[in-house]
Fold this protein.
Amino acid sequence: MSNPDFVYTTYIKTTPEKLWNAITNPEFARQYWGGHTNISDWKKGSKWQHEDTNNNNSVRVAGKVLESVPPKRLVLTWADPADAADDSRVTFEIEPIEDMVRLNVIHGDFKPGSIMAGRVAMGWPLVLSSMKSYLETGKAIDVAAVKKGKAA
């Protein structure tokens, strides 16, 4: 039996361009992703990687850009570099609605028995909440505290 797709939808008071920048700009992502950055030129066929700037820029996730339509849609393969065979696919869909955007993040195509499926099930809600907070208020949530169980 294969693992199901995870679908996360959030509404953010921002523009599609600012949201695209939040996902693809390394310095912007570092602000809400607990010191992690996303590195690529974001062109179809290019490699991308998710680096931990708190740990000598170690690569936590890597993959390939499958589709890139700024500021509307980004599709990536997603895998732990230590287990590249356990890859999956993540899709970001950005849709403007009046003075906000709807962001759909669909993470799926997991291999049977995927370890990554369990990791992203916990990670995406936290990262997307932090991104939303950062875009709307200028302050991200402390994702490290939540991951360590320190949040109240």
Observations:
- The radius of gyration is 15 Å.
